């Protein structure tokens, strides 16, 4: 490869990377928009790790009820936890949990539709192109340029 052909090649790689990046962002945004919101999730079982649980279906509109898994009659008051709605993270406050570190949670959240799942899988598959193949192409091109320069340096003209 001639060094003067390097500029169009680098430009092509940058544009390909940008197109893949924008495509991945679009897949993510469309996947989030395709979630089915306002769905009641009943008795989702969660175990606390370091006084934190993560609800499976987020964003969460609100927790309707939380109860101790070993004693389902023991309802956990809202003052005993803090909810981060976007991530579905629930942080345990104090000892009002009645010693429960496994709970059943009833809440309203957003669940993945088949479109959301398909877009997430496509995004994962396309993401490997940019992380694996583009880097490999760049390495091969750089090595071919170095090899071309070395071969030219040994070209003896008579």
- Quickly give the structural class: alpha+beta
* C-alpha geometry: elongated
**Percentage of helical residues?**
40-55%
Oligomer: single chain
Kindly report how far apart the N and C termini lie.
Answer: 24 Å
Strand order of the largest sheet: 1-6-3
Strand content: 25-35%
Q: Number of helical runs?
A: 2
- Integer count of domains: 2
Overall mean confidence score, pLDDT:
82
Main beta sheet strand tally, sense and closure: 3 strands, antiparallel
Helix/strand order = HEEEEEEH
Low-confidence stretches: none
Number of strand segments: 6
Summarize the SSE layout with pairings.
Layout: H1 6-33, E1 36-47, E2 52-54, E3 60-68, E4 81-84, E5 89-92, E6 102-111, H2 114-153
Antiparallel strand pairs: 1-6, 2-5, 3-6, 4-5
Helix pairs in contact: 1-2
Overall description:
The strands form 2 sheets. The chain has a 3-stranded antiparallel sheet with strand order 1-6-3, with no helix packed on it. It has a 3-stranded antiparallel sheet with strand order 2-5-4, with no helix packed on it. It is of the alpha+beta class. α1 runs antiparallel to α2. The chain has 2 helices and 6 strands, in the order αββββββα. It folds into 2 domains: 3-33 and 115-153; 36-111, no CATH class.
């Amino acid at each position: 490869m001639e060094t003067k052909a390097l500029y169009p090649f680098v430009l092509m790689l940058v544009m390909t990377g940008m197109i893949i990046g924008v495509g991945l962002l679009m897949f993510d945004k469309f996947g989030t928009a395709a979630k089915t919101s306002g769905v009641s999730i009943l008795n989702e079982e969660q175990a606390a790790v370091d006084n934190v649980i993560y609800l499976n279906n987020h964003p969460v509109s609100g927790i309707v009820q939380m109860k101790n898994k070993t004693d389902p009659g023991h309802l956990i008051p809202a003052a005993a936890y803090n909810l981060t709605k976007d991530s579905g993270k629930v942080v345990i406050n104090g000892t009002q949990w009645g010693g429960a570190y496994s709970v059943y949670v009833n809440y309203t959240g957003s669940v993945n539709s088949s479109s959301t799942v398909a877009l997430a899988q496509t995004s994962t598959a396309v993401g490997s192109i940019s992380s694996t193949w583009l880097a490999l192409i760049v390495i091969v091109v750089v090595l071919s340029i170095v090899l071309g320069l070395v071969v030219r340096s040994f070209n003896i003209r008579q």
